[in-house]
Amino acid sequence: MSASLPLASFITEFWNDQLVEHDRQGVFLVLVGFVGSFAFIRMSTRMIRAEVSWWPGNVESESGLHVHHLVFGIITMMVAGTFGFAAFGHSPLAEICAFFFGVGAGLTIDEFALWVYLDDVYWAEEGRSSIDATVIAAAAMGLIVLGINPFHLGNESEGVAATIASGLILVTVVSFCFLKGRKLHGIIGFFLIPFSIYGACRIGKPDSAWARRRYGERRPKKQTKSERRFPPDRRTDRFKEAFRDLVGGKPSEGVAAAREEALAATREASEEVRKRAEQVAHPIEAARERERDEDQSS
User: Fold this and answer.
1) CA 27 to mean position of chain CA atoms
2) What is the CA radius of gyration of the chain?
3) In 21-128, which residue ranges form alpha helices assigned H by DSSP?
4) Pseudo-torsion of CA 243, 244, 248, 253, nearest 10°?
5) d(Cα 110, Cα 146) in Å, to the nearest integer?
6) 87 or 100: which carries more pLDDT confidence?
7) Which of 61, 81, 155, 298 registers the highest number of CB atoms within 10 A of its CB?
8) Can you give the residue ranges of every domain in the chain?
9) Are 29 and 141 within 8 A, CB to CB?
10) Does residue 75 carry a pLDDT above 90?
11) Distance from C-alpha of 120 to C-alpha of 168, rounded to nearest angstrom
């Protein structure tokens, strides 16, 4: 009992002094719902993948159509968003809607790769982009909860021109970060501009849009420097892969490889069908061809 009182006091003080006083309780609850629903659905899908007998399986219609949890996330966001606007800031309905909006966002962003590839790549290598998108979104919300507002560019005394100039500089350096493939610098730099300035001034990644446009044959030294700076097996990438494995589970075979295997199997099946059709249409020639194959093998 004595141990629970300091914890309750800390939570109350944090809620009142850090959140309510600065009107950040809504964003905080969105973040809580977002992280919680993402963690739950990842646990659920991993248990389904492991074929745990007592855990409910996928949601499917009578015809066998698999209903992605993305659908439930979108519906939850629509309902929570509508009631949130209707609440017009009145507590506790506004806070409840904020929490459920975060829940819907977490369910939706967990299938971010489905938005991009328009294919069920959840366990493929391409599906790991959902982990990246979730981390970036959670980091952005966390920075807003901490009071870092990218839209607060100055006060009225600085003038409209200074505010517009600051905004243009921010957008420019963040755009450079994304063009150079430095996504994390761009996201964090949107809230903390020194990060975006650092990312914009550094060399781009070899597979980035910046490198394709400005390196390569036009500037081979820059391309070589970029490839040397970002080797495929560098420690940072290994850490990212380990983190993605920990959060989202190890991927199955990539989509490209799976499609190539499917095409190869289709070609083999087509060749088999063609040979059998020729045997039916030309039995004598087929028999002679079999004899030649047997003579060559012997």
Assistant:
1) 20
2) 28
3) 25-49, 69-87, 93-109, 112-117
4) -140
5) 24
6) 100
7) 81
8) 20-148, 257-298
9) no
10) yes
11) 38
At 191 the pLDDT is 80
**What are 60's strand-pairing partners?**
66
Question: Counting beta carbons within 10 angstroms of the beta carbon of residue 189, is it exposed (0 to 12), middle (13 to 18) or buried (19 or more)?
Answer: buried
Handedness of CA 94, 97, 99, 101 (dihedral sign): negative
Quote the DSSP letter at residue 128.
G
pLDDT in the model for residue 159:
60
Which residue's entry shows tokens 């399986």? Answer: 57
On the question of pLDDT at 105 being above 90, the answer is: yes
Half-sphere exposure of 283 (CA within 13 A, CB side): 1
Residue matched to tokens 């219609």: 61
Environment class of 215 (CB within 10 Å of its CB; exposed 0-12, middle 13-18, buried 19+): buried
3-state SS, residue 60: strand
Structure-token pair, residue 124: 């493929």
- Tokens found for residue 152: 């607060």
Cis status of the peptide bond prior to 92, with omega within 30 of 0? yes
Cα of 70 vs its chain's centroid, Å: 13
Distances (CA, A) of 61 to 65, 106, 159, 239, 296: 5, 23, 59, 39, 55
3-state helix, strand, coil in the chain (%, to 5): 75, 0, 25
Q: Where are the beta strands (DSSP E) in the chain?
A: none
Tell me the three state secondary structure of residue 66.
strand
Q: Which conformational region is residue 119 in: left (phi greater than 0), alpha (psi within -120 to 50 degrees), or beta? A: beta
Task: Count how many Cα atoms sit within 13 Å of the Cα of residue 7 in the half-sphere of its side chain.
Answer: 4
